[in-house]
Amino acid sequence: MKIEKLAEANLERLIRKSYGDEAALESRVAEILGRVRLEGDEALFRLTMELDGVDLRQSGLKVREEEIEEACASVSGEFLTALRVAKRNITRFHERQKRVSWFEPEEDGSILGQLIRPLRRVGIYVPGGTAAYPSSVLMNALPALVAGVQEVVMVSPPRPDGSLLPEVLAAAGEAGVREIYKVGGAQAVAALAYGTATVAPVEKITGPGNIYVTLAKKQVFGQVDIDMLAGPSEILILADESARERELAADLLSQAEHDRLASAILVSPDRTLLEETVREVERQLSTLPRAEIARCAWENHGAAIWVRDLAEGMDLANRIAPEHFELVVKDPQQWLGRVRNAGAVFLGRFSPEPVGDYLAGPNHILPTGGTARFYSPLNVDTFTKKTSVIQYSEQALARDAEHIVRLARTEGLEAHARAVEVRGHEAGKGEPEEGRGDARGTSGYQRMRREKPRSGEEGPAHG
């Protein structure tokens, strides 16, 4: 790999990934969604056999409780300990994100506020394929449970024998997820969105997956909510002369091994560091179990970019808006305030990206493909909804009526205006005259306030 200057770097190649003929993929996904919507469970059985070679009629679509118990018993004690430490940290971090409903009384007797309520039922997608992700079970499920979601439903692609990886089921057991289905891909998203005889529909779908999962989430949005459109994993490291090439190479490969489309980018004003790290990547690739995947990602979507100084490197990072952003510099906190766009930031050489993937506590389901410019990581708010509360007093309505009426009539919505003006009659202050007020611009509500009828008299006739 050559060392590129910033002006020569093809940023579009680094940010946008090509999946081939995306129109054809969209069409195929739409076909799968349509089949599941029409045929329900039968489509899930057929599609899983066609696409995964797994007969769900034999293995069962839904995971049985005893399968979860057997999985928990079969994994090592060391794994369970690590899982429980991760669970504790993830739960503790997300509990700090909880927000409560609030109500603010005004001096005029009005009350404004916001109800914050958890979603009732959500679906979490846990990827399978070339790797298994028990950590993603925790990252999806625990924020939902902290938010107060009553029903968390998990889907994940089955292995060839029709089972799920024991570590994935053990993670679900530890997280308290008991409704699990052995189905993946676009068909799993369809089942969650539309429901089948076996799978009840959900209100939101979260979690990353392959391109079929991502496009399916995109197409069912509106029927249900989704968290984000996640793509291949990314890491961008901004490093200075204090960094160590062995550590940088390991961090770059930690993301390159995820997927052939993953991005691993090193940016530095130290050209010698760039050259030594590129050589170190080659050395580490020779012993990496997933070397074929990592090499493909590194050669096609990796980069080593030379910049004039750290300030230029920071500007580049904000333009790329990486999923994972490592600041491996002498004083990383000095630069934190200049970070505008990143899914997660890792400060210093003792905060490698896998710390965030597994144990630190912040969520590892992060925006990709430059969407950190406007998306946030998965969090407790992802699983809540907010309802505005408005209780106006008679005094407040009298004060604001003129402005409301004027805005309504400016928009040509006469019924809106009258819905405010008629309250004068309901409050015993007379009825508004029809129309827009007199020639001097006095509103009907103003006249009501000025012409309050005496006791025993009726107000002005309603035209």
From TrEMBL:
<feature type="compositionally biased region" description="Basic and acidic residues">
    <location>
        <begin position="453"/>
        <end position="463"/>
    </location>
</feature>
<feature type="binding site">
    <location>
        <position position="258"/>
    </location>
    <ligand>
        <name>substrate</name>
    </ligand>
</feature>
<dbReference type="GO" id="GO:0051287">
    <property type="term" value="F:NAD binding"/>
</dbReference>
<feature type="binding site">
    <location>
        <position position="210"/>
    </location>
    <ligand>
        <name>NAD(+)</name>
    </ligand>
</feature>
<feature type="binding site">
    <location>
        <position position="255"/>
    </location>
    <ligand>
        <name>Zn(2+)</name>
    </ligand>
</feature>
<dbReference type="InterPro" id="IPR001692">
    <property type="entry name" value="Histidinol_DH_CS"/>
</dbReference>
<feature type="binding site">
    <location>
        <position position="411"/>
    </location>
    <ligand>
        <name>substrate</name>
    </ligand>
</feature>
<dbReference type="InterPro" id="IPR012131">
    <property type="entry name" value="Hstdl_DH"/>
</dbReference>
<keyword id="KW-0862">Zinc</keyword>
<protein>
    <recommendedName>
        <fullName>Histidinol dehydrogenase</fullName>
        <ecNumber>1.1.1.23</ecNumber>
    </recommendedName>
</protein>
<dbReference type="GO" id="GO:0005829">
    <property type="term" value="C:cytosol"/>
</dbReference>
<feature type="active site" description="Proton acceptor">
    <location>
        <position position="323"/>
    </location>
</feature>
<dbReference type="GO" id="GO:0004399">
    <property type="term" value="F:histidinol dehydrogenase activity"/>
</dbReference>
<keyword id="KW-0028">Amino-acid biosynthesis</keyword>
<dbReference type="GO" id="GO:0000105">
    <property type="term" value="P:L-histidine biosynthetic process"/>
</dbReference>
<dbReference type="Pfam" id="PF00815">
    <property type="entry name" value="Histidinol_dh"/>
</dbReference>
<comment type="pathway">
    <text>Amino-acid biosynthesis; L-histidine biosynthesis; L-histidine from 5-phospho-alpha-D-ribose 1-diphosphate: step 9/9.</text>
</comment>
<feature type="region of interest" description="Disordered">
    <location>
        <begin position="420"/>
        <end position="463"/>
    </location>
</feature>
<dbReference type="GO" id="GO:0008270">
    <property type="term" value="F:zinc ion binding"/>
</dbReference>
<comment type="similarity">
    <text>Belongs to the histidinol dehydrogenase family.</text>
</comment>
<feature type="compositionally biased region" description="Basic and acidic residues">
    <location>
        <begin position="420"/>
        <end position="439"/>
    </location>
</feature>
<dbReference type="InterPro" id="IPR016161">
    <property type="entry name" value="Ald_DH/histidinol_DH"/>
</dbReference>
<dbReference type="InterPro" id="IPR022695">
    <property type="entry name" value="Histidinol_DH_monofunct"/>
</dbReference>
<feature type="binding site">
    <location>
        <position position="324"/>
    </location>
    <ligand>
        <name>substrate</name>
    </ligand>
</feature>
<keyword id="KW-0560">Oxidoreductase</keyword>
<feature type="binding site">
    <location>
        <position position="187"/>
    </location>
    <ligand>
        <name>NAD(+)</name>
    </ligand>
</feature>
<keyword id="KW-0368">Histidine biosynthesis</keyword>
<feature type="binding site">
    <location>
        <position position="258"/>
    </location>
    <ligand>
        <name>Zn(2+)</name>
    </ligand>
</feature>
<feature type="binding site">
    <location>
        <position position="125"/>
    </location>
    <ligand>
        <name>NAD(+)</name>
    </ligand>
</feature>
<feature type="binding site">
    <location>
        <position position="416"/>
    </location>
    <ligand>
        <name>Zn(2+)</name>
    </ligand>
</feature>
<feature type="binding site">
    <location>
        <position position="357"/>
    </location>
    <ligand>
        <name>substrate</name>
    </ligand>
</feature>
<feature type="binding site">
    <location>
        <position position="233"/>
    </location>
    <ligand>
        <name>substrate</name>
    </ligand>
</feature>
<comment type="function">
    <text>Catalyzes the sequential NAD-dependent oxidations of L-histidinol to L-histidinaldehyde and then to L-histidine.</text>
</comment>
<keyword id="KW-0479">Metal-binding</keyword>
<feature type="active site" description="Proton acceptor">
    <location>
        <position position="324"/>
    </location>
</feature>
<feature type="binding site">
    <location>
        <position position="357"/>
    </location>
    <ligand>
        <name>Zn(2+)</name>
    </ligand>
</feature>
<keyword id="KW-0520">NAD</keyword>
<feature type="binding site">
    <location>
        <position position="416"/>
    </location>
    <ligand>
        <name>substrate</name>
    </ligand>
</feature>
<feature type="binding site">
    <location>
        <position position="255"/>
    </location>
    <ligand>
        <name>substrate</name>
    </ligand>
</feature>
